[in-house]
Amino acid sequence: MIALYIIGGILLLIILLLLCPIVLSVKYVDERLSIRLCGFRLLPQKEKPKKEKQQKKKKKEKEAKDPKKKKKKKSKIDFQQIKTLVTSATPAAKKVFRKIKIRKFRFIYICAGDDAAKTAIQYGRICAAVASLLPIIQNIFDIKVDKIDVQLDFSVNKPYNEVKFKAKLKVYVLIAAAVIFLKNYLSASAKNKEQ
């Protein structure tokens, strides 16, 4: 009976892990990019001490001086293999992209500059780009827009831009996409071998 409880607990834990979302937070404000994946900071990375940088440079210089290094064999990939990979990955990629949920999407851009005419033209281009790209993004992803704001400001010399969003994807979707890709790839490669 205890074994059944342990097996049930393990299965429950696996199901909970599969239902957990992978969260990617992206924040770009005034040319500063910040990326977090599941709460861990990917960018900006902490700067390493100068001693470590100097040691890495010395290692690279030593490696460059050694002519005895083995040459890597070039793998031959033909067009048929690339075609098989792309056709196999397409349904899986569509499934993954459709299941990505983008929330709290904010896009703020304030057009500014010294020349009023160039600033107005830039404002028109940004508005046109946003108006044409947003429906395309909405067709690919499940997105909820928090705020999109494009403004024109002649009193400031430097433009301001801000992009923020959180993207979520459940683990089971990645596993299902990997299974679909493997199934398609194996069937396509079997057909290619028969021909």
Layout of secondary structure:
Elements (H helix, E strand, L loop, with lengths): L1 H18 L1 E9 L2 E6 L2 E4 L6 H16 L13 H21 L1 E11 L4 H25 L1 E11 L7 E11 H24 L1
Helix pairs in contact: 3-5
Task: Please give a structural write-up.
The protein is of the alpha+beta class and 195 residues long. It contains 5 helices and 6 strands; from the N terminus they run αβββααβαββα. It has helices spanning 2-19, 50-65, 79-99, 116-140, 171-194, and strands at residues 21-29, 32-37, 40-43, 101-111, 142-152, 160-170. A 6-stranded mixed β-sheet has the order 3-2-1-6-4-5. α3 runs antiparallel to α5.
Gist?
It is built from five helices and six strands; from the N terminus they run H-E-E-E-H-H-E-H-E-E-H. The protein has helices at 2-19, 50-65, 79-99, 116-140, 171-194; strands at residues 21-29, 32-37, 40-43, 101-111, 142-152, 160-170.
Give the overall pLDDT as a whole number: 87
Q: Please provide the count of β strands.
A: 6
Question: How many helix segments?
Answer: 5
Radius of gyration, rounded?
25 Å
Low-pLDDT stretches: none
SSE class = alpha+beta
Separation, N- and C-terminal Cα atoms:
55 Å
Order of helices and strands: HEEEHHEHEEH
Question: What proportion strand?
Answer: 25-35%
Largest sheet: 6 strands, mixed
Widest beta sheet: strand line-up = 3-2-1-6-4-5
Morphology:
extended
Helix content: 40-55%
